[in-house]
């Protein structure tokens, strides 16, 4: 057995103490496993009281928003990296691929079925940070294509980014909003129309 120095033991003790990062990782792991996030259960898992957990993360909604964005952002970046072409078709493809990834995510669909009202509130309104970040991500894509001379948008970037986010949300949350099946292909078609390009038949 390796001898442990006094300082080494102190460092190990500090590393073993739960903190906000530990809490976030545990919440994210539970979300991806399809479990409902319960603050009391998470606090018990971490060996801290609820007051400490709330001080770290701010609350259940804040924590859920951060967890979901931590999954959504790399999904968006993968869609950007894989999207061919340029201009309107590239942006529409990114949004369609993102919608398809969300629509086929077991963890996300379970969350949406289990807590539809909270999901829509956190993901599509100012109550959560997801929509603000999603709109900003789309705005960056638009700006990139405009700067490259591959897109001449019909609307200012802020308004266009918001509308594109709404289109994507509509066909991701279609089953909750209208009872219809989510349809990533319609994200592509509607985005192309909004961007001034004819969809492929």
UniProtKB/TrEMBL annotation:
Lineage of source species: Bacteria, Bacillati, Actinomycetota, Actinomycetes, Mycobacteriales
Protein name, as recorded: QsdR TetR regulatory C-terminal domain-containing protein
Keywords, comma-separated and alphabetical: DNA-binding, Transcription, Transcription regulation
Pfam family, one: TetR_C_36
Entry-linked InterPro entries: Homeodomain-like_sf (IPR009057), HTH-type_TetR-like_transc_reg (IPR050109), Tet_transcr_reg_TetR-rel_C_sf (IPR036271), TetR_C_36 (IPR041485)
Domain QsdR TetR regulatory C-terminal: 86-196
């Amino acid at each position: 057995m390796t001898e442990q120095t006094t300082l080494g033991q102190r460092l190990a003790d500090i590393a073993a103490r739960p903190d906000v990062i530990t809490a976030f990782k545990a919440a994210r792991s539970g979300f991806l496993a399809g479990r409902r996030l319960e603050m009391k259960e998470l606090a018990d898992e971490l060996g801290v009281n609820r007051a400490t957990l709330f001080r770290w993360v701010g609350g259940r909604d804040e924590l859920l928003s951060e967890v979901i964005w931590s999954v959504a952002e790399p999904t968006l970046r993968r869609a950007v990296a894989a999207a061919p072409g340029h201009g309107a078709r590239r942006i529409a493809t990114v949004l369609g691929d993102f919608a398809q990834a969300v629509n086929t995510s077991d963890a996300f669909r379970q969350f949406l079925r289990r807590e539809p009202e909270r999901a829509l509130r956190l993901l599509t309104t100012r109550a959560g940070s997801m929509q603000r970040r999603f709109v900003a991500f789309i705005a960056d894509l638009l700006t990139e294509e405009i700067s490259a001379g591959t897109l001449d948008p019909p609307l200012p970037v802020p308004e266009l980014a918001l509308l594109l986010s709404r289109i994507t949300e509509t066909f991701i949350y279609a089953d909750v909003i209208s009872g219809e099946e989510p349809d990533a292909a319609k994200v592509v078609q509607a985005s192309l129309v909004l961007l001034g390009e004819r969809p492929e038949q």
